[in-house]
What does this fold into?
Amino acid sequence: MIVALETSSPNCEITFLKEEKEILTIFADTHSKHEKNLITFFDWAFKYLKITIKEIELIGISIGPGNFTALRVGLATALGIAYPHNILVKAINTLDALYFTSLFYFSYLKDKKILVVSDAKRESLYAALYQNEEKIGNYQLVAINKLSTIFKEEEIDFVCGNALLSYPQLFENFKKINIYYPKAKIIGLLAKKAKEAQKLDSLFSLSPFYLKEPDIRK
It folds into this structure.
């Protein structure tokens, strides 16, 4: 069984999957107070599904970028469960998860250039560009007044991510996908794919992915 955790956004979500089938999702809009809910979610899920922790083979976890404290809470929870029980772990970049969440609901956009933008606060955005299930270039931290010089409107087919909610005026002329946050289910499916490709993570090397201030494009 696969368990996936998404804590990078104001939403706290865990999903249990058997192979690729979603069997349970628990969701709460906790405004980043995830530490109060995650353990309760797990306890309730184990009782509801009548399973034990020994049945979990893989944990997928959103690794950021996102709210740093919330990411650390999610990662600490995943590692706290995985380490004593020798459970495999795969960390998934939040922007990747957002992109593949969009494709899950709108698969016909696979060949389109999709810009994923997430609010990084302080008038800046986390951003990455994708096409055909591949990332084009690097993950970036971009000041909002520099966005149009880095990502040309005519070169972007669609935009998704919660920056659409934070800065609607910035994206008035872009075609939008109404996907704002990644789904835990997609994180689980991406983790499963990584396991099949033998691209899992070491428990001792994981830390939140956080683009620092010097990475802002001037």
